[in-house]
C-alpha cells in the first residue's frame, strides 16, 4: 500500500473548484487543515466563503470524491467549519492580485 502524503492531499484538493468563483479551494484559502495518518486515513478541515454558500454541500462532496481517487486511501473525512471565519486575506497572494483584491 502506497503512503499518502499531505502534499498529495493538497495537490488533489487543487482540483476542487468553487463554481461560483471559478477557483480551486486551496487558492481561495478554504482549506484550514490536512492530516493523513499511518493507515492512509485523510482528514480535511475546510470552510466556505460564507455560511450561506449554496454550493457548500457540492464542494464538500467533490473534495471527498477527489481524495478517494488517491491510490491506497482508506477513509476520508471532510469537515466544515466557520471558526475562524474565512476572509479575503486567506486567498493566495497571486490570485488576490489577479482578482484585484
Automatic annotation (TrEMBL):
It comes from the Bacteria. Residues 6-79 form the MIP18 family-like domain. This is Aromatic ring hydroxylase. InterPro entries: Fe-S_Maturation_MIP18 (IPR052339), FSCA_dom_sf (IPR034904), MIP18-like (IPR002744). It comes from Thermosipho affectus. Pfam families: FeS_assembly_P (PF01883). SUPFAM superfamilies: Fe-S cluster assembly (FSCA) domain-like.
Amino acid at each position: 500500500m502506497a503512503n499518502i502524503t499531505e502534499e498529495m492531499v493538497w495537490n488533489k484538493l487543487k482540483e476542487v473548484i468553487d463554481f461560483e468563483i471559478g477557483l480551486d479551494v486551496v487558492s481561495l484559502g478554504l482549506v484550514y487543515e490536512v492530516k493523513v495518518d499511518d493507515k492512509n486515513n485523510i482528514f480535511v478541515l475546510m470552510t466556505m466563503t460564507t455560511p450561506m454558500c449554496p454550493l457548500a454541500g457540492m464542494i464538500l462532496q467533490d473534495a471527498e470524491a477527489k481524495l478517494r481517487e488517491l491510490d491506497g486511501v482508506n477513509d476520508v473525512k471532510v469537515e466544515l467549519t466557520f471558526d475562524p471565519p474565512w476572509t479575503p486575506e486567506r486567498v493566495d497572494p497571486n490570485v488576490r492580485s489577479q482578482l484585484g483584491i
